[in-house]
Amino acid sequence: MTLDGRLLTGVSVLAAIVETGGFGRAGELLGITTSGVSRSLSRLEARVGVRLLDRTTRSVSLTEEGRRFYERVKPSMESIEEAASTATASAAVVQGRLRVNMDPLVMRLLANGRIGSILDAHPGLSLELLSREQIGDMVGEGVDVAVRFGEPVGVSLIARKIADLKLITVASPEYLKRTGRPSHPDKLQLHDCIYLRDPITSRPFSWEFHGKGGALTVKTRSRLCVSDASTMLSECLAGTGVAQVFSVVVRDMVQRGDLVELFPDWGEETFPLYALYPSRKNLPMKVRAFVDFIVDTVK
């Protein structure tokens, strides 16, 4: 016998009749009419091929076959109710395993001693963070949420913009000591710039500068192009060249003097950060809590 919706409904109706002692009270418990209870039970009896209840005008009682059937299905019904209660609790409480697909640069930002704060705040939560250049098949890989820079393109996912991050131009003190500090963005054509390849177009991102005077596109030169932002940042810190990075990622490095922001008057360009979900229906609290954590981190 295969399990289907009508069979499960019939078993639920049978359980309600046994627990309440009558068709009318079972209907009240389930929110259906007495005749609806009777029809559902009749369908169940036809399905299993035996009479499950003896009915009189005053009472109902399980037949011998019905008693054996009910004793077999009752533990399963209790397990289903327990599973439903657990799922309901998970929707209201931050708990369980959360699998997150993250842009490598976001991962670098969060891995800098910040993950512990969300785990401390939610003892029932466990995190699995995947550093991926591509989103991939979230459903197939069991990923709950992805965090990505840039406007989502060509993905059938629910996207929520969670921040607009400022893009700035930086270099290490060692690089500037060796080459001199450029006084204006257009002077970058005389410097070694580290290019970051756009994973969508496979071409380097263009270098733009936004300030109070408007937008400026600058022709730059480069002898190094990388496919991930973490490598770009590492090379910039090592003095290889100039890089454009998100201010929130390097603000601690700038404050410590590990990097120098080159053009503070031309740092108005922003780039969106998105959270992506497979579905917006019944979003678990653990996903909401993680997205809130990202928002607080990038402020």
Largest sheet: 7 strands, mixed
Give helix % range.
Answer: 40-55%
> Which CATH architecture of the largest domain?
3-Layer(aba) Sandwich
Poorly predicted parts: none
Q: In angstroms, what separates the terminal alpha carbons? A: 57 Å
Radius of gyration: 30 Å
Strand content: 15-25%
Q: Tell me, what's the shape?
A: rod-shaped
Category by helix and strand content: alpha/beta
Question: Which class of the largest domain in CATH terms?
Answer: Alpha Beta
Number of domains: 2
Nearest-integer average pLDDT? 84
Q: What is the count of helical runs? A: 11
Oligomer: single chain
List keywords for this structure.
two-stranded antiparallel ribbon; 299 residues; Arc Repressor Mutant, subunit A; alpha/beta; seven-stranded mixed sheet; DNA-binding transcription factor activity; LysR family transcriptional regulator; D-Maltodextrin-Binding Protein, domain 2; single chain; DNA-binding; 2 domains
Report what the structure shows.
With 299 residues, this protein is an alpha/beta fold. The protein has 2 domains: 5-87, Arc Repressor Mutant, subunit A (Orthogonal Bundle), CATH 1.10.10; 94-298, D-Maltodextrin-Binding Protein, domain 2 (3-Layer(aba) Sandwich), CATH 3.40.190.290. The chain is 42% helix and 24% strand. The chain contains 11 helices and 13 strands. The protein has helices at 5-20, 23-30, 34-48, 64-92, 104-110, 115-121, 138-141, 173-179, 229-237, 247-256, 285-297, and strands at 53-55, 60-62, 96-102, 125-131, 145-149, 158-171, 192-196, 208-211, 214-217, 221-226, 243-246, 260-261, 270-277. The strands form 4 sheets. Strands 3, 4, 5, 6, 11, 12 and 13 form a 7-stranded mixed β-sheet that branches. Strands 1-2 form a two-stranded antiparallel sheet. A hairpin with a 2-residue loop joins strand 8 and strand 9 (214-217). Helix 1 (5-20) packs across helix 2 (23-30) and helix 2 packs across helix 3. The radius of gyration is 30 Å and the shape is rod-shaped. The model has no long low-confidence stretch (mean pLDDT 84). Residues 13-63 form the HTH lysR-type domain. It comes from Luteibacter anthropi. GO terms for molecular function: DNA binding; DNA-binding transcription factor activity. Pfam families: HTH_1, LysR_substrate. This is LysR family transcriptional regulator.
